[in-house]
């Protein structure tokens, strides 16, 4: 069954900034894209590739707070 969580407006804004940045890595952009796509879609869930990227972003000490926020949102909406 799909989760009923959606990405908040604040995290969606951060995700958008991460996607527009030229200095952001591909894993951060993958996680941010997943989080942004779930802004108003309660039935969408994060896929395995995006969940793995989000996990990697959260473990990396070099990523920005915005990237980690988006990754956390994407990871919280993954399939179990």
Description:
Helix 1 runs antiparallel to helix 2 (26-37) and helix 2 packs across helix 4. The chain has helices spanning 9-20, 26-37, 48-59, 65-76. By secondary structure, the protein is mostly helical. The protein has one domain (9-76).
How would you describe this structure in keywords?
0% strand; globular; 80 residues; mainly alpha; single chain
List the helices and strands and how they pair.
Layout: H1 9-20, H2 26-37, H3 48-59, H4 65-76
What's the total number of strands?
0
The residue-averaged pLDDT reads 93
Q: What low-confidence regions span 5 or more consecutive residues with pLDDT below 50?
A: none
Alpha-beta content class: mainly alpha
Rg is: 11 Å
Shape: globular
Q: What is the percentage of strand-forming residues?
A: under 5%
Number of helices: 4
N-to-C series of helices and strands: HHHH
Biggest sheet: strands, sense, closure? none
Helix content: 55-70%
Number of self-contained structural domains: 1
Q: Compute the separation of the termini in Å.
A: 10 Å
